[in-house]
Every structure is written in structure tokens, then in C-alpha cells.
Specification:
The chain has twelve helices and no strands. The chain is mostly helical.
């Protein structure tokens, strides 16, 4: 039991408590790590690429533990700083795109155009009208997105796969459709797509499970505080 309540909510040393999580729920922990091992195994996608996808996802979930772990694993697989930054830029572009795509929903509401169907594919036709309200800003975003998605240290096809995974983490149907079509057009396969999504699922689940460390720290601290009172 760790009674130390540090002023820092995230310390690398906290990861030692993962072993305690495994002891508390051994079957669940074993199942998760089996899932992780299978998802990150080298198949249609190289393990190195899978770690890069995980790096991008962890920047969307914002988990410091996961960022450190997956970036470290990618580095050990001879990943470069340039690749890490490019993957982060892809994640940032898709995150922004998700918000901007959803502006069509707000547009419908503001103009009393909402029907029972809130997520119609035809909503995309409203985007040009939204862009007209702030053309310079949308043009700047489109330049950013175009640059982020272009061939670089990471090839364009892999960037589109990362984008598809981020779109799923965000739960944006517009972005999922947009980037899946682009990934397929660049020669992406269904096997690669699903393997990428499994990595995204593991990274998303890992974000929640790893924060069990913070739950343990908080539980121990408050239990001790109750005992003192």
C-alpha cells in the first residue's frame, strides 16, 4: 500500500503499482495483456508501425504514462523523433477536423434544419456554407491538414491509417468515412485497417486501465485520511 500522496499526479515511478492492479483483478489483467500482445504482434502491419499508431492515440487520450511507455517502445524499435512528431501532427489535424466537421450539426441547429436524423451523410454539403463565415481560418486549417497528411518521415498511406484510428478514438463518423476512403485509395487493405483499429482499442483501454494507478493512490490516501480522523 502506498500512503505517499505526492503533489504530482503523474510520476513514472507510479507504474510500479501496475503489479498491484494485476493482483487485485488477475483474470481481467491477464485478458487485457493477452489482448495487447495479440494486437501489437507483427502481422499485416509491422510492430514498429503499431507502436507509432499507439503514440498518436496516447496524445489524443492525453495519458502521460501511455505517452512515455509507447514512445519509449517506438524508440527501441529505432523510431525517429521526426516520425513521432509527424504522427502527433496527424492526430492533431484529425482532432481539429472532428470539431470542424461537427460544425455542420451546429449549423443545422442554428438554422432550424434539424430532423430526426442527426448524423446524415448529406450534412457534409453544409460545410462550404460554414466555411464562408470564416474563410481565412478554414483555409489555414486546410493548409495545416494538407501538410500534416503529406508524405514525410511517415508515408501518406500510414498517415491515413493513423487518421482512421484517431477518428475512431474520437467517435467521428464523418472523419471515419473520410479517412477510410483515403486509406483505401492509397492501397490500404481491410487487414491493415482492422489491425490498426485493434491497436487503437488497446491504447484506449490502456489509457483507462493505467489510470487505475491514480485510483489506487487516491484510495490509499483517502483511506489513510479517514483513519487519522
Amino acid at each position: 500500500m502506498n500512503m505517499n500522496h505526492s503533489n504530482s499526479l503523474y510520476e513514472r515511478s507510479n507504474l510500479k503499482r501496475v503489479a498491484e492492479l494485476q493482483e487485485i483483478v488477475p483474470q481481467g489483467s491477464k485478458a487485457f495483456f493477452q489482448f495487447m500482445g495479440e494486437a501489437f504482434a507483427e502481422k499485416a502491419i509491422a510492430s514498429r508501425t503499431k507502436e507509432l499508431i499507439a503514440v498518436a492515440v496516447t496524445h489524443v487520450t492525453g495519458c502521460p504514462y501511455c505517452i512515455d511507455v509507447h514512445t519509449g517502445k517506438f524508440k527501441k524499435l529505432e523510431g525517429s523523433v521526426e516520425e513521432v512528431v509527424e504522427a502527433i501532427l496527424v492526430a492533431g489535424a484529425v482532432n481539429a477536423e472532428t470539431v470542424l466537421f461537427h460544425s455542420v450539426n451546429a449549423w443545422n441547429t442554428m438554422h432550424d434544419l434539424v430532423s430526426n436524423e442527426l448524423y446524415a451523410t448529406s450534412n457534409a454539403s453544409k460545410l462550404p456554407q460554414v466555411k464562408e463565415t470564416r474563410p481565412e481560418t478554414f483555409a489555414a486549417f486546410e493548409q495545416f491538414q494538407s501538410t500534416a497528411m503529406a508524405d514525410g518521415a511517415i508515408d501518406a498511406k500510414t498517415k491515413q491509417l493513423i487518421a482512421v484510428v484517431i477518428a475512431h478514438v474520437n467517435g467521428c463518423a464523418y472523419s471515419i468515412d473520410n479517412h477510410t476512403r483515403k486509406f483505401k485509395a492509397l492501397g490500404g487493405t481491410a487487414e491493415e485497417l482492422m489491425e490498426g483499429l485493434l491497436v487503437g482499442g488497446v491504447a484506449n483501454a490502456g489509457y483507462v486501465l493505467t489510470h487505475g494507478i491514480n485510483a489506487l493512490n487516491a484510495y490509499d490516501y483517502h483511506s489513510d485520511a479517514v483513519a487519522r480522523n
